[in-house]
Amino acid sequence: MQEFFDRPDPIPGRGEVLIRVDVAGVNPLDHLLRSGLVDGLDGGRVFPRVLGMEAAGTVLALGEDVNGLEVGDAVFGFALTGGGTYAETTVLSAPNTARIPDGLSATVAATLPVAGTTAVDVLDQLGLPAGATVLVNGVGGGVGLAVARLAIGRELRVIGVGSTAKREHAEGIGVWFIDYTAEDVAAAARDLVPGGFDAIVDLVGGTSLRTVAPLARNPLNVIAVGDMSVTDLGGRFVERRVDRENLERSARLALDGVLAPVITAVHPLSDAPAALATVENGHTSGKVIIKVA
After folding, report:
1. Which of 226, 230, 247, 292 has its CA nearest to residue 101?
2. Which of 45, 61, 96, 161 fits as disulfide partner to 18, beta carbons 3.0 to 4.6 Å?
3. Alpha carbons 118 and 121: distance in angstroms, whole number
4. How many CA atoms lie within 13 A of 137 on its CB side?
5. Pairing of strands 97-99, 74-78
6. What is the spatial distance between Cα 134 and Cα 136, in angstroms, rounded to a whole number?
7. Cis? peptide before 261, omega within 30° of 0
8. Chunked in runs of 10, what are the mean pLDDT values of the chain (293 residues)?
9. What span, in angstroms and rounded, lies between the C-alpha atoms of 288 and 53?
């Protein structure tokens, strides 16, 4: 069950910053946490808990042992210690929080902690040369489009798999699109890249992962973001880096237009349940955000 409630401003603990939330990003992980399916994240807090893992806002107070941030800074980052970002104020983990650079909006910054850093991590892990071919399975969501955009920025050829509703946004950034609702994915992919793909990035998991994994020329270059069983297929799970350095790197890429997010829905905080439901159904295209301030 989801409901709104009043709470006092959280008190930032050691290594935390209290922020006034301007914008919160909405991610599939949020409804998984709500369902109790993910242990160890969000501070391991018991229910009821505030949802939301990423946000942009303004620093209101500092806990002990916080370096590199000051009260009044515009920042973005992760609420890894359990504060929750669907709120007017929250606490972020200071080592996982960075200043928003001049010229970057809080709206764009709030989309970067999950989707932006994941895209950077995936493509760094693959280390492909310009001209290589990449299949992005699940290209239409916030992470999928970020991976595709960054890959194209690195001069890779990107083929994306998604539903009909995802085609426009994917093709709009230069992706060769395969509609899994209308085509045999494996056959269509082989027609486009007969010799096999240099890499596959999977954002779907399950049966869909098992369909596309054999299309890679080297199984080690199959990287999954959500399904750890990829290792059973000879592939790898993404190695995540959520520190300040990677946030700052993602912000620079966003400033350069390489990680410009496709924001397809903006909800007020009062409409947060609908925002989460949009992501939970798995059919949303691009990034969904909640405007708090």
Report:
1. 247
2. 61
3. 5
4. 28
5. antiparallel
6. 6
7. no
8. 75 96 88 53 60 95 97 95 87 97 97 96 98 97 94 97 94 96 97 97 96 98 96 97 97 94 92 85 80 88
9. 13
